[in-house]
Design a protein that fits this description.
binds fructose -6-phosphate; Rossmann fold; six-stranded antiparallel beta sheet; 613 residues; alpha/beta; 20 helices; Glutamine Phosphoribosylpyrophosphate, subunit 1, domain 1
Length: 613
């Protein structure tokens, strides 16, 4: 959601800003814009601002033919919150004189009262955005020093923000401040960058500084400074990212989503590489070692997350219940944070997040921290806000996920949840034999996923056959109830057709009334202890003329008897089977969305990083 990129150096800024915006497109947005200052000679007093509704390519079209030699500036992709997507609401927002430009991610919660105050002082507002109050406040406080004006502005703001500000009269200075929304500073050779995430900066530098909340960065032509809001200088560590953490190209696939589905053998391998000791039947999670003594005293686990990461959490509950003696609760982060929680030092709260930026998940763990719980994380994006706030955690090391629909991170999250549960379970009742069996099964997963991917053409054919339907029911039991929810989510988010994920046993309590010959069911029916009950549910659907596509294992005759179509996946332990079952669900959704001509990597209205609550 919303993306910021800034450049301050000696090269032409506009191509760098546009390229950065393109690399941020995956976060989700509906308008874009940039402001640069001065021409090639660094002429002062002149801002060039270009904005466009729609894609970055529209912005590129608008600026084509303009000679812009400026060597510093700020740019933004906006995902509409306050005010519809339009050129006037796009960022940068400008002050009354058109000298100060601001880009902003996040939400200014007290913007209405600030706006009233500023209007009373004569400021004229042009947009419907909350952001515009920021630029008028900076104008109000500006007395020749931009940094001071920004510091005074921040004192007045409530909410979350990543903000970048330039002033047309101040050569080569960008002031950036962070509270809640992510900001990374990129350190190049005599040039400096800032961005919402590292992927925007990948072509220019792998040396990054992750700003923490209430820090301010000042980029100039030949240096950078980082301070806190008390104006004290800070020395921050420069992280050097490796290729995997930066790599964002489609590698010949038609979409990032398809590439990421096909990357799962490696991302699963990366999730357990160096984290298992086969001979001891145990997992080794270096990220949890520092809090091991506390973990051993924990009685209850609460998993908080959103969307696909929430479905990983739902399955996590079954996995932890299976392998540990902990009481386990799972809650969507947006609800958890408002509950009257009984948290204390015997409770461990686990946040699961691909982006590490999701506002609700972040708010939930801040609340849990306040109440004394131990906070753990499973995060993919290194150094992000959620990773920073947790007491300990485990990274996915799966590389950037660019397609809005989460695929490789979901399966990676499931592997890590299993490793975490095993890590704790082996201090409790899980035996060496049980641990060794799980570890052996985990190590076979990459090869088994490859086997499913080799079957992509057959899954595509099935998907094309089903693409004509407008509604789908997904059902599963126990470990595969979350798989049904995740399968349905994949389909609805990228193909825009209605799909519901249900616990199979719940079907009779309502959804079955929807079933007819035009309402197919995807039944996740592996050969486990729940199979007979699944078969009964499938028969009930057949009796009402419903079509059934089942995901099952080989040689399960009774599934074949009640299915119109089948996708066969390799067998593994029941707790790991969802990792394999979800892969054809991802491909099924992908091929239906492709058949419908959808914008698969950037589905309408969605954002990759949901940085507002
Ligand atoms: C769906 C999807 C979203 C995210 C959710 C949480 O495919 O990607 O539902 O899972 O927005 O995001 P993270 O994991 O970044 O916290």
């Amino acid at each position: 959601m919303c993306g910021i990129i800034c450049y301050c150096g000696k090269r032409q800024a506009v191509p760098i800003l546009i390229n950065g915006l393109k690399r941020l497109e995956y976060r989700g947005y509906d308008s874009a814009g940039f402001a640069v200052v001065g021409d090639a000679e660094g002429e002062k007093g002149k801002s060039i601002v270009v904005k466009a509704k729609g894609r970055v390519s529209q912005l590129e079209k608008k600026k084509s033919g303009m000679e812009i030699g400026a060597t510093f500036g700020i740019a933004h992709t906006r995902w509409a919150t306050h005010g519809k997507p339009s050129e006037v609401n796009a960022h940068p927002q400008l002050d009354c004189k058109g000298k100060i430009s601001v880009v902003h991610n996040g939400i200014i919660e007290n913007y209405q009262e600030l706006k009233r105050e500023l209007e009373a002082k004569g400021h004229v507002f042009k947009s419907d955005t909350d952001t515009e109050v920021v630029v008028h406040l900076v104008e109000e406080y500006f007395q020749g020093n931009l940094e001071n004006a920004v510091l005074r502005t921040v004192e007045r703001l409530s909410g979350t923000f990543g903000i970048a500000v330039v002033h047309a009269d101040i050569d080569h200075e960008i002031v950036i401040v962070k509270r809640g929304s992510p900001i990374i500073i990129g350190i190049g050779e005599n040039e400096y960058f800032a961005a919402s995430d590292s992927s925007a900066l990948a072509p220019y530098t792998n040396r990054m500084i992750y700003l923490s909340d209430d820090e301010i960065a000042i980029l100039t032509a030949d240096d950078y400074h980082i301070k806190n809001l008390k104006n004290e200088d800070l020395v921050k560590k420069i992280e050097v990212l490796d290729d995997m953490e930066l790599h964002v190209d489609k590698k010949g696939f038609e979409h990032y989503m398809l590439k990421e589905i096909f990357e799962q053998p490696e991302s699963i391998q990366n999730a357990f590489r160096g984290r298992i000791i086969e001979g001891e039947g145990v997992s080794k999670l270096g990220g949890l070692e520092p809090v091991l003594d506390r973990i051993k005293k924990i009685k209850k686990l609460v998993i908080v997350s959103c969307g696909t990461s929430y479905y990983a959490g739902l399955l996590g509950r079954y996995i932890f219940e299976h392998l540990t003696q902990l009481d386990v609760e799972v809650e969507v982060a947006s609800e958890f944070r408002y509950r009257r929680l009984k948290l204390n030092e015997e409770v461990m709260v686990l946040a699961i997040s691909q982006s590490g930026e999701t506002a609700d998940t972040l708010a939930a763990i801040k609340e849990a921290k306040r109440k004394g719980a131990l906070i753990l994380g499973i995060v993919n994006a290194v150094g992000t806000a959620i990773a920073q706030i947790t007491d300990a955690g485990v990274y996915n090391h799966a590389g950037p996920e660019i397609g809005v629909a989460s695929t490789k991170i979901y399966t990676s999250q499931l592997v890590i949840l299993t490793l975490m549960a095993l890590f704790i379970g082996r201090y409790q009742s899980v035996s060496f034999m049980e641990g060794a069996e799980i570890i052996r099964a985990i190590t076979r997963l990459p090869e088994q996923v490859r086997e499913i991917l080799d079957n992509a053409e057959q899954i595509k054919e099935i998907a094309l056959k089903y693409a004509k339907y407008k509604n789908y029911l997904y059902i599963g039991r126990l470990f595969n109830f979350p798989t049904a929810m995740e399968g349905a989510l994949k389909l609805k988010e990228i193909s825009y057709v209605h799909a519901e994920g249900y616990a199979a046993g719940e079907m009779k309590h309502g959804p079955i009334s929807l079933i007819d010959k035009n309402f197919p069911t995807v039944a996740i029916a592996p050969d486990d202890l729940t199979l007979d009950k699944m078969i009964s549910n499938m028969m009930e659907i057949k009796a009402r003329d419903g079509k059934i596509l089942s995901v099952t294992n080989d040689n399960v005759r009774k599934v074949a008897d009640v299915s119109d179509d089948m996708i066969i996946v390799p067998r593994t332990l029941p707790i790991l089977q969802p990792i394999l079952n979800v892969v054809p669900m991802q491909l099924f959704a992908y091929y239906i969305a492709r058949e419908k001509g959808r914008d698969i990597d950037k589905p309408r209205n969605l954002a990759k990083s949901v940085t507002v609550e």
